[in-house]
Amino acid sequence: MAEIGKDIAKAKAYLEKGDLVGIPTETVYGLAGNALNPDAVAKIFSVKNRPSFDPLILHTYDLDSVGHFVKQIPAPLRSLAERFWPGPLTLLLPKKDIVPDLVTSGLDTVAVRVPDHPLTLGLLGVLDFPLAAPSANPFGYISPTKASHVNDQLGEKIPYILDGGSCKVGLESTIVGMEGNQVTVYRLGGLDIGKIENVVGKVEVMAHSSSNPKSPGMLKSHYAPTKPFILGDLDELIAEYNLKGRRFAILAFRRYFPQISDHLQIQLSRDGDLSEAAKNLFAAMRALDSLDVSVILSELMPDVGLGKAINDRLKRAAVPEAGNH
Ligand code: TXA
Ligand code: MG
């Protein structure tokens, strides 16, 4: 198992040797390596069991440092960075040659973000390279929002996890780039589109296209528990699965189901607060996935604000494994 601690100097030493370290961010935990060292980047793909055609996000200390890695920043994207970094926003920008092709899977754009977590910003501040970091989960599984999640799944394969507590946003960053002159969202995430539109006006959303995805994170089946995950009306699903005699667990937005025992149900936010629901989502999916049940029943959130990003993850979790895993 990995060592878990808050020691930035230790994390730095491992990263400088080309080893990988689990890092906290405000969205989810990352599996980080030196982005300018192709051997470290190759380790990321192998530890995660991730196909090499799925590019990584470069994490940097601040907006100024991004200039080392990209040729230019289109004006609307710069406005977004100024407004929302550090924060759950990733920008797709034209890359400079210094960024290894392995990081970008050969694309001529690189995904960049400045994460909002004091430990990881402290770490980035003492490193003289940026960090490539995908979410620290095996490819296709639910993203980790606690150090223990990372340790459970990747602890055998990495030496150290920087423990920054529970992620306060709980959903991966929103990925934004340009299609010509049009600001375009490629992955719904922790930064609500309404906030982006307040800065740059109407955006295009390409996050739901399924054919030839530009962002492989748009693969339909992703963020998926190992148990079948069924979405629908919970009253109907409960009746149906009771009839079938199946042992099930429930992931609800806010409603409590008195006829179901407490340990078999989780409410994402009893107050109906979508930020709280987002923060709790992945830990709840993991907890239910570990129960002695054969199926997880769930429902969609209200399709507004962060609810849209939560619903995106719920729908991908519900795609059968045989799909596009
Ligand atoms: O919140 C986050 O973004 C977390 C934390 C750790 O920062 N990271 C994360 O990384 O979610 P990952 O690797 O799980 O998802 C990154 C997504 C992938 O779907 C990838 O396809 C997309 O970003 N991506 C990366 N570079 C890209 C590029 N140049 N063009 C299009 N999509 C890109
Ligand atoms: Mg991921």
UniProtKB/TrEMBL annotation:
<feature type="binding site">
    <location>
        <position position="187"/>
    </location>
    <ligand>
        <name>ATP</name>
    </ligand>
</feature>
<dbReference type="GO" id="GO:0005737">
    <property type="term" value="C:cytoplasm"/>
</dbReference>
<comment type="similarity">
    <text>Belongs to the SUA5 family.</text>
</comment>
<feature type="binding site">
    <location>
        <position position="50"/>
    </location>
    <ligand>
        <name>ATP</name>
    </ligand>
</feature>
<dbReference type="InterPro" id="IPR010923">
    <property type="entry name" value="T(6)A37_SUA5"/>
</dbReference>
<feature type="binding site">
    <location>
        <position position="173"/>
    </location>
    <ligand>
        <name>L-threonine</name>
    </ligand>
</feature>
<keyword id="KW-0808">Transferase</keyword>
<feature type="binding site">
    <location>
        <position position="59"/>
    </location>
    <ligand>
        <name>ATP</name>
    </ligand>
</feature>
<keyword id="KW-0963">Cytoplasm</keyword>
<feature type="binding site">
    <location>
        <position position="133"/>
    </location>
    <ligand>
        <name>L-threonine</name>
    </ligand>
</feature>
<dbReference type="GO" id="GO:0005524">
    <property type="term" value="F:ATP binding"/>
</dbReference>
<dbReference type="Pfam" id="PF03481">
    <property type="entry name" value="Sua5_C"/>
</dbReference>
<dbReference type="InterPro" id="IPR050156">
    <property type="entry name" value="TC-AMP_synthase_SUA5"/>
</dbReference>
<feature type="binding site">
    <location>
        <position position="113"/>
    </location>
    <ligand>
        <name>L-threonine</name>
    </ligand>
</feature>
<dbReference type="GO" id="GO:0006450">
    <property type="term" value="P:regulation of translational fidelity"/>
</dbReference>
<feature type="binding site">
    <location>
        <position position="143"/>
    </location>
    <ligand>
        <name>ATP</name>
    </ligand>
</feature>
<keyword id="KW-0067">ATP-binding</keyword>
<dbReference type="GO" id="GO:0061710">
    <property type="term" value="F:L-threonylcarbamoyladenylate synthase"/>
</dbReference>
<feature type="binding site">
    <location>
        <position position="27"/>
    </location>
    <ligand>
        <name>L-threonine</name>
    </ligand>
</feature>
<dbReference type="InterPro" id="IPR006070">
    <property type="entry name" value="Sua5-like_dom"/>
</dbReference>
<dbReference type="InterPro" id="IPR038385">
    <property type="entry name" value="Sua5/YwlC_C"/>
</dbReference>
<feature type="binding site">
    <location>
        <position position="223"/>
    </location>
    <ligand>
        <name>ATP</name>
    </ligand>
</feature>
<dbReference type="InterPro" id="IPR017945">
    <property type="entry name" value="DHBP_synth_RibB-like_a/b_dom"/>
</dbReference>
<comment type="function">
    <text>Required for the formation of a threonylcarbamoyl group on adenosine at position 37 (t(6)A37) in tRNAs that read codons beginning with adenine.</text>
</comment>
<dbReference type="GO" id="GO:0008033">
    <property type="term" value="P:tRNA processing"/>
</dbReference>
<dbReference type="GO" id="GO:0003725">
    <property type="term" value="F:double-stranded RNA binding"/>
</dbReference>
<dbReference type="Pfam" id="PF01300">
    <property type="entry name" value="Sua5_yciO_yrdC"/>
</dbReference>
<keyword id="KW-0548">Nucleotidyltransferase</keyword>
<feature type="binding site">
    <location>
        <position position="109"/>
    </location>
    <ligand>
        <name>ATP</name>
    </ligand>
</feature>
<feature type="domain" description="YrdC-like">
    <location>
        <begin position="5"/>
        <end position="191"/>
    </location>
</feature>
<feature type="binding site">
    <location>
        <position position="135"/>
    </location>
    <ligand>
        <name>ATP</name>
    </ligand>
</feature>
<dbReference type="InterPro" id="IPR005145">
    <property type="entry name" value="Sua5_C"/>
</dbReference>
<keyword id="KW-0819">tRNA processing</keyword>
<protein>
    <recommendedName>
        <fullName>Threonylcarbamoyl-AMP synthase</fullName>
        <ecNumber>2.7.7.87</ecNumber>
    </recommendedName>
</protein>
<dbReference type="GO" id="GO:0000049">
    <property type="term" value="F:tRNA binding"/>
</dbReference>
<keyword id="KW-0547">Nucleotide-binding</keyword>
